[in-house]
Specification:
Length: 387
Amino acid sequence: MALDSESFDILLPTVQRFIRERLVPAENHLEEHDEVPADIVKEMKTMGLFGLSIPEEFGGIGLSMSQEVQVAYEIGKTALAFRSVFGTNVGIGSQGILMDGTPEQKRDILPRVASGELIMSFALTEPDSGSDAASLKTRAELDGDHYVLNGTKRFITNAPRAGAFTLMARTGGPGAGGVSSFIVPADLPGLRLGKPDKKMGQRGTKTCDVILENVRVPAANIIGGVPGRGFKTAMKVLDRGRLHISAVACGMAHRIMAESVAYARDRKQFGKAIGEFQLIQAMLADSQAELLAGWSLVQEVAKRFDAKPAHVSDPDVSMRVSCVKLFCTEMVGRVADRGVQIHGGSGYINEYPVERFYRDVRLLRLYEGTTQIQQLIIGRELLRQAA
Ligand code: COS
């Protein structure tokens, strides 16, 4: 799947212009009001941003992974909360259905996901199950032609906006094989939201608990119709999401670099622009080299991702995705840290974008699998390949 190159050559500059002219000027509003303005959300829908990764047959734009990472790079150039509005529809919220759903589930859900009419959110994490995702406790007991769900999901991005969840619950015994993925409409009786999480950064991104008390979900809502496959669906979805996040990390590093270079040209000390000092140049140079390295990795692994069917997992590609996620999210952390350092005291003041970006990017090393989980995936796969 890919968008024809002529159409893509129109889409990319359109997204670039939207970010430059609409999103960047709205960053202060976002920070102050903790909300993405409704007119911006409307424009995102018109542009098709909710359906970037959904095939054209279901009303989306149908980007390949190689194309999607280029768009994600652009989206990374502004406050990350803007992406969060449509990010779960493009990635973790919808991809499980696209990869493993039945034809009916795809036909029923994906067109509304692509248009942005339906916000889908991904509910895997729980209070006692974060990195150890296979230990999740939310129960799904079969009762006639329904499952009855009980449990709590934690830190669920977009839960307050969601019309439905891709939600993992235990239909069988312990471990990964007992987990199923469900499509859970948000308006089912017994489903409620916790209070909004107060986060370090990414103001405008909405996360909270999702609490399920005897929520009756039709058995037909198990993704793919077969119980016990939900963990693998979640892992495949995360593989893809991790690549997307890595591209966003590179875009954000790009923006922080632009802010830092501009500041270094403008700010004068000891009678000249601080950018003329070699110690400032050294920080810029390290950041630029690391950004280019990360971005090259993203593009290389995206090509490998496109070379296989999206719903088929390849442990070697998964391992490479983890390398990219590890490198790019750690990289943008270092770039943000140097960005603040270049700005000096001003970098600690909320009026400067780098102060916010420094807090925003901290999350990238945590969600969709911490750096340490990426290390485990890489280490395990290297040993497996050697055996
Ligand atoms: N694609 C497809 N299948 C996968 C997979 C992948 N990327 N990774 C693992 N699987 C399969 C395995 O092949 C295994 O299948 P079999 O039982 O048929 O052999 C099954 O899933 C269980 O895998 P594994 O034994 O590796 O599970 P572990 O419990 O050891 O956990 C980790 C694996 C740690 C990698 C996983 O729990 C993880 O990614 N944790 C982080 C969760 C996360 O990212 N959370 C963020 C929340 S969303 S913002």
